[in-house]
Amino acid sequence: MEKTPLLDGCLSVIAQAFMDSFSLVEQHLDKHSPTNKLLHAKDIPQYKQEVKDFYKQVRDPAGFSNAEFKAFLREESKKDGHITDIPVHL
């Protein structure tokens, strides 16, 4: 995909923020740290907490039964007509 140098720089900053949010290593930033890390430094703790909360929800699902899930899929399949035989797709 063609992109301008400006867009590439912006995407790099966003990518760095995502990587820092998922990092298990605590970062110690100072005035000599790269600008792209300093730009979102104050937001990273919040992003890290959101990542932890997300994975906690994945690990400990709300708990719905297999029958409830199949019923949900049946209702969704009626809307778009793509899923016709639920047991085959599960």
What's this, in brief?
With 90 residues, this protein is mainly alpha-helical. It has helices spanning 5-22, 35-39, 44-59, 66-80, 86-89.
Explain this structure:
Helix 1 (5-22) packs across helix 3. It contains five helices and no strands. The chain has 90 residues and is mainly α. It has helices spanning 5-22, 35-39, 44-59, 66-80, 86-89. The chain has two domains: 1-59, no CATH class; 62-90, no CATH class. The protein is elongated. The mean pLDDT is 84. It comes from Conger conger (Conger eel). GO terms for molecular function: semaphorin receptor activity. This is Plexin cytoplasmic RasGAP domain-containing protein. Residues 1-80 form the Plexin cytoplasmic RasGAP domain.
* Model regions low in confidence, pLDDT < 50 over at least 5 residues: none
Helix fraction, binned, reads 55-70%
Order of helices and strands: HHHHH
The major beta sheet can be summarized as: none
The tally of helices reads 5
Beta-strand residue fraction: under 5%
* Cα separation of the termini: 36 Å
Mean pLDDT across every amino acid position: 84
Radius of gyration: 21 Å
**Could you tell me the number of beta strands?**
0
How many separate domains make up the residues? 2
Which class of secondary structure composition applies to the elements? mainly alpha
**What's the shape?**
elongated
Q: Which terms summarize this structure?
A:
Plexin, Rho_GTPase_activation_prot, Plexin_cytoplasmic_RasGAP_dom, 5 helices, mainly alpha, semaphorin receptor activity
